[in-house]
Design a protein that fits this description.
- It is a single chain.
- By secondary structure, this protein is of the alpha+beta class.
- The chain folds into three domains: about 5-120, Orthogonal Bundle (Butyryl-Coa Dehydrogenase, subunit A, domain 1), CATH 1.10.540; about 125-230, Butyryl-CoA Dehydrogenase, subunit A, domain 2 (Beta Barrel); about 230-375, Butyryl-CoA Dehydrogenase, subunit A, domain 3 (Up-down Bundle).
- The protein has helices spanning about 5-25, 25-35, 40-50, 70-80, 90-100, 105-115, 230-265, 280-305, 310-340, 350-360, 365-375; strands at about 120-125, 140-145, 150-160, 165-175, 180-190, 195-200, 210-220, 225, 270, 270-275.
- Strands 1, 2, 3, 4, 5, 6, 7 and 8 form an eight-stranded mixed beta sheet that branches. Strands 9-10 form a two-stranded antiparallel ribbon.
- Helix 1 packs parallel to helix 4, helix 8 (about 280-305) packs antiparallel against helix 9 (about 310-340) and helix 9 (about 310-340) runs antiparallel to helix 11.
- The longest helix has about 35 residues, at about 230-265.
- The radius of gyration is 21 Å and the shape is globular.
Length: about 375
């Protein structure tokens, strides 16, 4: 398996770094954190119109570039490195993947061109307070009434749920249990009966919402995929999101290493830079090892995504998510330790990465959950 980027992919990564080190600098990230929407719409528009990133994985017939998950990796890695605040991940890695995997031609034709142009944002609402990331335990229900489906229930941890134009919602047929009876629906972000509230989380760089559905009516053509077969479709969507998030986490983990090394070569103690002490050297070496280990498995998972074998994708995505989550969180913690007392002060950035690392660790399942999933795939 060849993990090397081609020249076009390398240039995409270089362009992403040049853009994001300005437009997602510490000052810009902090401004986005304090803003009403949680991101700068002007920057998002430039990402669509000038850089074309939103079109990368959208097929050419829907005004996209028709590329794959591997081509998206350089962008995601740099977004993780610079803590990009915006609905890129939720739109592309959740919403677009839901349409590509389960949407019909009409749904894709209606939405994907507008996504590629940066005019429509999407997200996925599947997690709940009790079920959390176990898609077989979804409690949000739907029933048929005439020509409509009617949705009732509550969703939590919805990425960019306050601002998304369309939400792909997972719900189960009334009275169904387990993996049976689950379906996915496209719901307008302004639908009657839908109420949205900000969900305060430790990570202020990525907005989450709670969505409450009180008899929300959607037409029959809002169904994404086959009715009652949504559990398998949902897992396919989530596995691709896990593989993508792992790449983003690698970028964050490497940025923590870079920050720690830079600070250790500036900060002096006992008449010498602290980077000259063996304890710091060993800590930095461990951080580097974690980055490279996580990068290898994250890249492999996205190669598997492009290959299209769902069983392999599931196993590799879980391995990548578990490994990258641990790498990012531990590197973020070590970065704070190397910075010492200033590491968790508001004025310095290490705490922002620590908080993003913790939130990302939990999204789409904890490392422990994914290790269990890999073990089951191995027959253990």
């Amino acid at each position: 398996m060849d993990f090397r980027f081609n020249e076009e992919q390398l240039e995409l990564g270089r362009a992403a770094r040049r853009f994001l080190e300005v437009e997602s600098s510490s000052e810009r990230v902090r401004a986005a954190m304090e803003s009403e929407r949680g991101f700068d719409p002007a920057v998002y528009k430039r990402i669509a119109e000038e850089l074309g990133w939103l079109a990368v994985t959208i097929p050419e017939e829907y005004e996209g570039l028709g590329l794959g998950a591997v081509d998206l990796m350089p962008i995601l890695e740099e977004m993780g490195r610079f803590l990009y605040c915006g609905p890129f991940f939720s739109t592309i890695c959740l919403g677009v993947n839901a349409l590509l995997l389960g949407g019909d031609d009409a749904q894709k034709g209606e939405l994907l061109p507008y996504v590629a142009r940066g005019e429509t944002t999407l997200t996925l609402a599947h997690a709940e307070a009790r079920a959390k990331w176990d898609s077989a335990e979804i409690e949000c229900e739907y029933e048929k009434r005439g020509d409509d489906y009617v949705l009732s229930g509550e969703k939590r941890y919805v990425l960019d749920g306050l601002t998304a134009d369309r939400v792909v919602v997972a719900a189960r047929a009334k009275g169904s249990k387990g993996a049976e009876g689950i379906s996915l629906f496209l719901v307008s972000g302004e639908a009657d009966g839908l109420s949205k509230s900000h969900l305060p989380t430790v990570d202020m760089t990525r907005r989450e919402a709670a969505l409450t559905f009180r008899e929300v009516h959607v037409a029959r053509d809002a169904l994404v995929g086959e009715e009652g077969a949504g559990h398998a479709l949902l897992e396919r969507i989530l596995d691709r999101a896990r593989a993508a998030l792992a790449v983003e986490q690698v970028g964050g983990a490497e940025r923590c290493l870079d920050m720690a090394v830079a600070y250790s070569l500036e900060r002096k103690q006992f008449g010498r830079v602290i980077g000259s002490f063996q304890a710091i050297k060993h800590m930095a070496a461990d951080m580097l090892w974690r980055v490279e280990n996580a990068r290898s498995i994250a890249y492999a998972a996205n190669v598997a995504v492009d290959a299209g074998d769902d069983a392999e994708i599931a196993e590799m995505a879980s391995a990548a998510k578990a490994t990258a989550s641990t790498a990012f969180f531990q590197n973020a913690a070590d970065n704070i330790q190397i910075h010492g007392g200033v590491g968790f002060t508001w004025e310095f950035d290490p705490h922002l990465y620590f908080k993003r690392a913790k939130a990302s660790e939990e999204h789409f399942g904890s490392p422990a959950m994914h290790r269990e999933r890999v073990a089951r795939a191995m027959g253990l």
